[in-house]
UniProtKB/TrEMBL annotation:
HAMAP family: UPF0301. Belongs to the UPF0301 (AlgH) family. Pfam families: DUF179. This is UPF0301 protein ACFQ5P_00705. InterPro entries: AlgH-like (IPR003774). It comes from the Bacteria.
Length: 176
């Protein structure tokens, strides 16, 4: 929402990947990390890059555990999920294993895919409290925004996908 004061989340589009009584976890979708190259990360992890390696975008996923990587990618709608993969809806998943990075370095692996460093996390009831305080606006996912490498207007496009004109939003909360 426009009133978000935390600069890490101002005009952020966040995909909530998990939500339960224990809290919530999400990935910021519109904060690229152009200074962090995928090849550089693979080298740091000791993963050999082959000539036909897939180069995927690296993004700031959130402030929690910024050294931890999460690969967000498409999956088949049906089938089993291996260990380290969290299915998000029917055709989207998040994988945290090194194996997926090796696959990408060899020119295989899911397509499309992006790598997020860190994540956004909320304790039990924290996200709900922030939503009641008009901190977040929720909506159905606009899948085309997830992998789109154009980030400058992603927040506005996410609002428009929900039928919301950003110019009419207020940062003030109230009760009727």
């Amino acid at each position: 929402m426009p009133g978000m004061v935390d600069p890490r989340f101002q005009r952020s589009v966040v995909l909530v990947c998990a939500h339960s009584d224990e809290g919530a976890m999400g990935l910021v979708l519109n904060r690229p990390l152009p200074e962090v190259g995928f090849d550089d990360l693979l080298e740091q992890l000791g993963i050999e890059v082959e000539g036909d390696a897939r180069r995927i975008e690296v993004r700031f996923g959130g402030p929690v555990e910024p050294g931890r990587g999460f690969v967000l990618h498409k999956v088949a709608e049906h089938g089993e999920d291996p260990e380290g993969r969290l299915r998000i809806g029917q055709a989207l998943a998040m994988t945290t294993t090194r194996d997926i990075l090796v696959e990408l370095a060899q020119g295989h692996g899911p397509d499309p895919a992006v790598l997020a460093l860190g994540y956004a996390g909320w304790g039990p009831g924290q996200l709900e409290t922030e939503m009641l305080a008009n901190g977040w606006l929720t909506g159905n996912g606009a899948e085309d925004l997830i992998f789109d490498p154009s980030h400058d207007d992603k927040w506005q496009r996410a609002l428009k996908a929900q039928g919301i004109d950003p110019s009419v939003l207020s940062g003030m909360a109230g009760r009727a």
